[in-house]
Amino acid sequence: MKKSVLVIEDNVDLAFGLRNNLEIEGYTVDVAHDGSAGLEKVQRSPFDLVILDLMLPEMDGFRVLRNVREKGMVIPVLILTARGAESDKVQGLKLGADDYVTKPFGVLELLARVEALIRRNRLSIVKSPPEPERFGEIEIDIQTRTVMRGQQAVSLTPKEFDLLLALVERRGAVVSRMDLLRQVWGYSDAVISRTVDSHIAELRRKLEEDAAVPRHILTVRKVGYRLKS
Questions:
Q1: What strands lie across the sheet with 77-81, from one edge to the other?
Q2: Secondary structure of the chain in the HEC alphabet?
Q3: What percent of the chain has pLDDT over 90?
Q4: Buried (b) or exposed (e) across 70-87, using 16+ Cβ within 10 A?
Q5: 48, 118 contact by CB (below 8 A)
Q6: What is the pLDDT of residues 67-110, one digit of tens each?
Q7: What's the mean pLDDT in 196-221?
Q8: Model pLDDT for residues 108-122, shown as the tens digit of each residue
Q9: 8 A C-beta contact, residue 45 and residue 18
Q10: Left, alpha or beta for 4 (phi > 0: left; psi -120 to 50: alpha)?
Q11: Sign (positive/negative) of CA torsion 165, 167, 169, 171?
């Protein structure tokens, strides 16, 4: 079965070159020349991988990636961009990109990265999916990054989901604000703990029956938080 790739790139010549090289390697390739069209194609068709530029008309690549991940899609995304600043790379990876390549690039290296990402994703799909995590009326599907409250889907941002998962993984143990900051945001130095507190407040608003009197996402005074089933 042929593997399919979506190229979201506004440079027509570059998009043509990518398509040509990928098709030579046996891939089925589709192309979108702006962010909005690219996001629509991702939602409509099951691709094995997306190659995503950042500087796009209509909707930039960061917004495309954020939408893809917020909708729970786990398709591998390789960012291919002229923006080589470390801050751009960090932002892309935090939003859920699987790889980041800067222009100019070597075609052979790019093809190798595409193949590696698709292979890794297909191997993960073959493995038995983990059982959903549950507490109260909340059900969390880790593989698809989706959350249900009863029969109602709950929309969480990527960071809200990662924070919830960090609490779930501790199985009721207390987690300090600093540990949550390090695990979810990647910070290693002391930062304002309000970052965690504001996200916890949003989780309670979305998941608790009464956010003012939470039954599951509990505060441990002067320490941090824990999840009670």
A1: 28-32, 4-8, 49-52, 77-81, 99-102
A2: CCCEEEEECCCHHHHHHHHHHHHHCCCEEEEECCHHHHHHHHHHCCCCEEEECCCCCCCCHHHHHHHHHHCCCCCCEEEEECCCCHHHHHHHHHCCCCEEEECCCCHHHHHHHHHHHHHHHHHHHHCCCCCCEEECCEEEECCCCEEEECCEEECCCHHHHHHHHHHHHCCCCCEEHHHHHHHHHCCCCCCCCHHHHHHHHHHHHHHCCCCCCCCCEEEECCCEEEECC
A3: 48
A4: bebbebbbbbbbebeeee
A5: yes
A6: 998 888 888 999 998 887 888 888 888 888 888 988 888 899 89
A7: 93
A8: 989 999 999 888 877
A9: no
A10: beta
A11: negative
Give the tokens for residue 43: 């939602």
The residue behind tokens 């075609």 is 107
Per residue in 158-192, pLDDT (tens digit) is 889 999 999 998 888 998 888 888 888 775 444 55
Quick check: 127 pLDDT over 60? no
Residue type at position 24: I
**Considering the chain, what is the average pLDDT of its residues?**
87
Tally the residues of the chain. Answer: 229
